[in-house]
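Help! Submission page says 'invalid entity' but I think these are all valid:
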Amino acid sequence: SQQGEEDPQALSIQEGENATMNCSYKTSINNLQWYRQNSGRGLVHLILIRSNEREKHSGRLRVTLDTSKKSSSLLITASRAADTASYFCLANQAGTALIFGKGTTLSVSS
Amino acid sequence: SQTIHQWPATLVQPVGSPLSLECTVEGTSNPNLYWYRQAAGRGLQLLFYSVGIGQISSEVPQNLSASRPQDRQFILSSKKLLLSDSGFYLCAWKLQGAIEAFFGQGTRLTVV
């Protein structure tokens, strides 16, 4: 399959809890990005991590990248109901194609 | 500044009708252009990408085609829509060698 894999596919948590989503990809990459999509609408760029970085923070977001395992994780700390959305990783392959993971649907209940 | 325009936002088409979705980019030159589709409840699937005028790479063979008649214009077409063509279609661009990709707002296509 051309797509990366993300797990879990669906995640339900309570407000205040942390949410961790994982993404795996198949080929060498230049960088990996995480996007958020609300209810089948456009994509919002969250954070980018380059292939030579291992961890990056942005507000309540923490992204890790393990190029040896071809995997990345997105951690959202102290989740809020407004974080309810689908989250996708985008692997920028060492080439031209940009391949999305299948996505994780996060539901945060108050 | 660079922007990407994708229209229409929503579209309802009967089975067997043709399709033409257009995406244009402003404020940049020679971008790589991409078309993605998201079926209901599923992930974003890369359909086509283009690195230059007239150059189209197809990732998934199906009932769709793409064309790039101008540097900053990317068109997704179908001669006869199928019910399975329903979904959310996203256009994107990225400069060769650049890091970040930019996405249009998407078109929600419902084939009835």
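Support: the input was valid. A stray whitespace character was the problem, and the output above is from the cleaned input. Chain B is about 0% helix and 60% strand.
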